[in-house]
Write a structure and sequence with these properties.
heterotrimer; A alpha/beta (508); B mainly alpha (378); C mainly alpha (313); A: 508 residues; Rossmann fold; 2 domains; 17 helices; 32% helix; 26% strand; globular; B: 378 residues; mainly alpha; ABC transporter involved in vitamin B12 uptake, BtuC; two-stranded antiparallel sheet; 70% helix; 3% strand; transmembrane helix (chain B); transmembrane transporter activity (chain B); ABC transporter permease (chain B); ABC_transp_permease (chain B); membrane (chain B)
Chain lengths: 508, 378, 313
């Protein structure tokens, strides 16, 4: 079928262990010249680890890597770069306060001591022109949109002469339209003979962009297939190991009365830029309102404003008719507002404190933990035990710091703590990010259960599939406003995509 | 090459072993410094031990030094848990001493001893607390770096003391106040020449109270949550301003109390040298104790022994007192360096050598085989 | 203009430039150290080490420049301890810096005990720059100084150029802003942090040695009297920019010189209050600077004080 000379890259028997898990277990992977090759797998399947091995960030415990038939030893990203490997990480490796030029030449050995900004700017513009896009070389990274930042990442790797490009879930932060543009750029590169590794877990994208697919599951290789000879469903089965449910069961229940009402909300983000622009949204009891949108359009700020973590400059927030605008977290707690933040260890939990300490975080001022100025730790223990049992959380030691728990169990603990307070309004921000299939299903089931109990759920997610799977209505956020609300049952993805890109306004 | 691997949990023995090894290594580093100055470290350490524990009197002098160290270090345990790095115990100590002494020197002479002493202690505590509120307010309102602010306040406090001593409080141009009247002297608890005073009980009580606050009360829980994760603390409804300020007031107040107690009971006079550098030693004590107030009591006694012994070797062997700072900081260095083994496994690795000319094992055949297997599985 | 007033002003300002240079060198070093993401609060200790070993070197060799180099080397070695604990072992940078100050204070007062009250016979002498020093008013203040002062000027320009115009500067800033990204781009994060921490240490040592080898050519325990801490505060004032560091350092040099002049003139203002002046001024400046930094959203390197570890999962 192919000669060895056509193989760009071969990774054989790669094994990488981390304390407690084998992230890659004797994985084999081969990349041809001029192909787009998808690495498919669920969160935690070992895709990122394998690619980090290729990028020199991790050093494998076993196995070897050859590039164009030559054995290579990749000890650092620099080594990889020298061999023509360029990785575009999911979280961009850009320095916000530096300009595009400075980011592009960062770490480059070929550049002289003095930076000739003009010449670098010319080269950047030349690369951009070749692939039909524009970028201002003198702009600082923080001034650019996420899509533009991604292009800077691409320019960076091309500037360094990359022949193998690795893109780690590049579309996670893009609108469907931006994704199409990215695919255009990728196809252009492919026709130039570059080899592209595309990491994803979105099947439709995989089918449309790639020539071959390699599937990983739980750190092991499942197989490599040609895209033309396989269906989406078969791929899904390879990825998950069983048939998947594409839509969760849901009861038809009557929508309750209005629980959350946000009117003309305005708030700054951490950089002092207006992140919410007169935003309006209403959520009823017994419904899940999904908030879709490209990251950085004010979703985080919206959640923080409702939960009392951010100050509203103007506008109103009411929960069940009570004005809770800029209320203290205590008031909000008694109003029945609960929050599952995206940043579990940054906002939700206190990593260095124990499970018991974390379980009572929102309850320590109440009975039965309250005992005058003191805390009744025996009661706190009992309370934590209750949560652990009810939600089946695997906690090896109740007094050990929660940071040692697995991601899934941390999320369960967080969820348990918030649900146990009998919320009226539950705000869930990326509640399944980074979780395995089991935990994901568990979290989604809980959200639906809450909805069925009449709770108003605001689900903020970048994963459109997730929103469509569980939400009743979808609100699309763009530049700090809700640009449209659609029924999740009869949805036009293209329409949502255009709204996410700000191309279409609200339609009644 | 050193490599670090995260630990799931810290073995108990390490928690004990690291501080002990730090002390031993710190003493070793002190020895190296002494050897360069042609001083025999064994003789010095021997003299320190003798100077600190040699007799009932010397041990009581050790405890005299331990009292302010205990008072200050237990307060620091509380604020450091909150990640509020108050290094201004020195300044708070000085201001406490000045405020309390004001009553001793200029208060109504007719006041009864218990009342006067109580007022002095209260005023000293308030003075120290006031001096700690400044950086706390600056921190919570404007996020001004508390390390720099508290440090500058230490210097400012020193010059305030200087101002008074060379000014109206001194006697005939000497930076020395008149002696405190008997009514203004905090009682000593052992027969002379021992200077050990009832401040010891203040210290022990403070340690127990702070321990209870940290471990058992809502406020203690709040400080722990706040120190570890401010955003989670805010979500939990913890009042960040209130918590930081109360904790700062407690630690500053204890330092102020240490200042006035030491001045009133031990020195019985206000002067330029009121041993305010204990404020820095207390930081080391708190850190060595792992921010546990009860452990801080023991560590304070040990560091006090080092200081007491340090005075002795300076007098008897003419070995400069600076060596005490060298030993203390070396111990702290080792402890800070050693903390990594409680969080990580440290692994010594050699660079793996790659056999040259090895050929790739995966080629055409393998790749096809994989394709076949995948299709079969689908 | 009254000629006597003019000459007094010139001598005060020339003194201000000298005192300013003591602060400038450590401040510049710390600007770069903090830009790389390492917070070194041990400047006071490092300056003392520089001051003592500078004095010792000048005493033993009779050459104050050799003394200066020895002071820098000694402080650089001490800064290496800080780098090892903070960068390699990821220790708490605040407390390590504090330990470094206690270490420097203790070490120099231990070794320095025998040298208290001895004076250097040869000190660093001024060398007027031909031409420039003849400029009226400015010449005698800025260009009739010694080599160390001139080195300060050159370092300001050099570091500014290095930071903002060269690859070295881009790598350095990237390490302090986003070490992970810098690492992914092949920048040696650990090496960069070590290098600039040690350079910062050497410059702090130079600041200290400049005191003993030139301005006050004798040894006293704690001779730096808190100037290391003022330098730490000046870094915030400078918003991590070498040119602002120059402005800040000379401003504080002026306060110092004014204070000395007033004390010498025997004014009625209490000397304790005068001595307090630089610390009070720093206290005000750190507050104002913090507020400005906050409003402008610039300055503080994002990962200042945060250790970097690559292989974590």
């Amino acid at each position: 079928m192919e000669g060895q000379e056509q193989l760009m890259l071969v990774m054989s028997n790669i094994t990488k262990r981390f304390p407690g898990i084998v992230a890659n277990d004797h994985v084999n992977f081969a990349l041809r010249k001029g192909e787009i090759h998808t690495l498919l797998g669920e969160n935690g399947a070992g895709k990122s680890t394998l690619m980090n091995v290729l990028d020199g960030i991790y050093y494998p415990d076993e196995g070897e890597i050859t590039i164009e038939g030559k054995r290579v030893d990749l000890r650092s990203p620099l080594d990889s770069m020298k061999h023509g490997i360029g990785m575009i990480h999911q979280h961009f490796m850009l320095v916000d306060s530096l300009s595009v030029i400075e980011n592009v030449i960062l770490g480059l050995e070929s550049q002289g001591f003095y930076i000739d900004k003009k010449s670098v700017a010319h080269q950047i513009e030349a690369i951009a022109k070749k692939y039909n896009f524009r970028v201002d070389p003198y702009a600082k990274i923080w001034q650019l949109s996420v899509g533009e930042q991604q292009r800077v990442e691409i320019i960076k790797t091309l500037f360094k002469g990359a022949r193998i490009l690795i893109l780690d879930e590049p579309t996670a932060v893009l609108t469907p339209q931006e994704s199409e543009e990215l695919f255009g750029i990728l196809r252009e590169m492919k026709s130039e003979g570059k080899s592209i590794i595309f990491i994803s877990h979105k099947l439709n994208e995989v089918m449309s962009i790639s020539d071959r697919v390699t599937v990983l599951r739980k750190g092991q290789l499942v197989g490599t297939v040609d895209t033309v000879s396989i269906t989406e469903r078969e791929l899904a089965k390879m990825m998950i190991g069983r048939d998947v449910l594409f839509r969760l069961e849901r009861k038809d229940i009557e929508q309750g009365r209005e629980v959350l009402k946000v009117e003309d909300a305005q708030a700054y983000n951490d950089r002092g830029i207006m992140a919410l622009n007169k935003l309006n949204i209403t959520v009823h009891g017994g419904e899940i309102m999904g908030v879709a949108g490209v990251a950085g359009n004010g979703q985080v700020e919206l959640a923080e404003c409702i939960t009392g973590l951010r100050h509203l400059v103007s506008g109103h927030v009411t929960v069940e008719g009570i004005d809770v605008t800029n209320a203290t977290p205590c008031t909000l707690a008694s109003a029945g507002v609960n929050y599952i933040p995206a940043d579990r260890l940054g906002v939700g939990l206190v990593p260095n404190l124990s499970t018991v300490d974390n379980a009572m975080l929102r309850k320590y001022k109440q009975q039965p933990m309250r005992r005058g100025t003191f805390i009744d730790y025996a009661a706190a223990c009992t309370y934590a035990d209750g949560l652990i049992e009810k939600f089946d959380i695997a906690v090896p030691l109740k007094n050990a710091p929660v940071k040692v728990l697995s991601g899934g169990n941390m999320q369960k603990l967080l969820l348990a703590r918030e649900i146990e307070e009998n919320p009226r309004l539950l705000i869930a921000e990326h509640p399944t990010r980074g979780l395995d299939v089991g935990a994901t299903e568990f979290v989604r089931k809980i959200l639906l259960e809450q909805r069925d109990n009449g709770v108003a759920v605001l689900l903020i997610s970048e994963d459109l599939d997730e929103i469509l799977m569980v939400a009743d209505r979808v609100a699309v956020m763009y530049e700090g406003r809700i640009v449209g609300i659609v029924d999740a049952h009869h949805v036009d993805i293209a329409q949502i995509g255009l709204m996410m890109a700000g191309a279409v306004g609200a339609k009644a | 090459m050193l490599r670090f691997e995260k630990r799931d949990k810290t073995p108990i023995q390490l928690r004990v072993l690291v501080p002990i090894c730090s002390v031993l290594l710190g003493l070793l580093m002190g020895s190296v410094v002494m050897l360069f100055a042609h001083v025999n470290p064994l003789r010095v350490y021997g003299a320190i031990v003798k100077g600190a524990f040699g007799s009932a009197y010397t041990f009581s002098e050790t405890l005299v030094i331990a009292v302010p160290l205990i008072l200050m270090s237990v307060g620091l345990c509380l604020v450091y848990r909150m990640k509020f790095f108050n290094i201004g115990a020195k300044g708070q100590y000085i201001i406490g001493a000045i405020c309390g002494s004001y009553l001793a020197l200029f208060g109504p002479a007719t006041m009864s001893r218990p009342l006067l002493l109580t007022l002095m202690m209260v005023l000293g505590t308030l003075g120290g607390a006031l001096w700690a509120i400044i950086p706390a307010l600056l921190k919570v309102y404007w996020n001004v770096n508390e390390v720099i602010v508290t440090l500058l306040l230490n210097y400012i406090a020193s010059y305030i003391l200087w101002f008074f001593m060379y000014g109206t409080w001194g006697t005939r141009g000497f930076p020395l106040s008149k002696n405190f009247a008997l009514n203004a002297q905090l009682p000593r608890i052992l027969p002379p020449p021992s200077r050990l005073h009832i401040g010891l009980f203040f210290g022990l009580a403070a340690a127990v109270i702070i321990w209870i606050i940290i471990r058992k009360t809502r406020f203690g829980y709040e400080t722990r949550v706040l120190g570890e994760n401010e955003r989670a603390a805010r979500y939990a409804g913890i009042n960040v301003f209130k918590t930081v300020i109360i904790a700062a007031v407690i630690s500053g107040g204890l330092a102020g109390l240490a200042g006035i107690a030491h001045t009133s009971a031990v020195l019985r006079v206000l002067q330029l040298e009121i041993n305010s550098d204990y404020g820095y030693t207390a930081i080391i004590a708190a850190w060595l104790a792992g921010l546990d107030p009860l452990v801080a009591v023991g560590i304070s006694v040990l560091l006090a022994a080092l200081e007491a012994g340090g005075y002795q070797i300076q007098i008897v062997m003419r070995v400069p007192f600076g060596i005490v700072g060298v030993i203390e900081s070396s111990i702290l260095f080792c402890l800070l360096a050693g903390e990594i083994v409680t969080h990580y496994r440290v692994i010594l690795t050699r660079r793996l050598s790659t056999p040259p000319g090895s050929t790739p094992r995966i080629g055409k055949k393998c790749s096809v085989a994989l394709d076949e297997r995948a299709r079969g599985g689908a | 203009m009254n000629p006597t007033f003019g000459s007094i002003l010139i001598s005060v300002l020339a003194g201000a430039v000298q005192s300013g240079t003591i602060l400038l060198l450590p401040t510049l070093g710390e600007v770069l150290t903090e830009r790389s993401g390492v917070l070194n609060l041990g400047l006071e200790g490092l300056m003392l080490i520089g001051a003592f070993f500078g004095f010792l070197g000048a005493m033993k060799t009779g050459n104050p420049y050799v003394g200066l180099l020895l002071g820098m080397a000694a402080a650089a070695v001490a800064a290496t301890i800080h780098a090892f604990i903070c960068v390699t072992l990821r220790g708490n940078q605040t407390v390590t810096g504090l330990a470094l100050t206690i270490f420097g204070t203790g070490l120099t007062s231990f070794y320095g005990d025998n040298w208290v009250s001895q004076r250097l016979t040869t000190v660093i002498q001024p060398m007027a720059i031909p031409g420039l020093s003849r400029i009226p008013f400015v010449g005698p203040i800025l260009f009739s100084q010694d080599l160390i002062v001139y080195a300060g000027y050159i370092l300001v320009a050099l570091f500014w150029f290095l930071l903002f115009k060269t690859k070295v500067g881009v790598n350095l800033r990237a390490v302090g802003e986003n070490a992970k990204a810098a690492d992914a781009m092949g920048v040696n994060v650990v090496g960069t942090r070590y290098f600039w921490t040690i350079v910062g240490g050497a410059l702090a040592g130079a600041g200290g040695a400049y005191i003993t080898c030139c301005i006050h050519p004798y040894w006293l325990n704690g001779i730096t009297s808190g100037m290391g801490w003022i330098a730490v505060a000046l870094v915030v004032f400078a918003m991590w920019n070498p040119f602002n560091a120059l402005v800040g350092a000379f401003l504080f040099g002026s306060i110092e010189a004014l204070q000395l002049q007033l004390q010498a003139a025997g004014t009625y203002i209490n000397s304790a209050l005068l001595s307090m002046l630089p610390y009070l001024a720093t206290f005000v400046v750190i507050i104002v600077a913090t507020l400005i930094v906050r409003v402008r959203h610039v300055g503080t390197p994002k990962e200042l004080g945060i250790p970097y570890a690559r292989e974590e999962k």
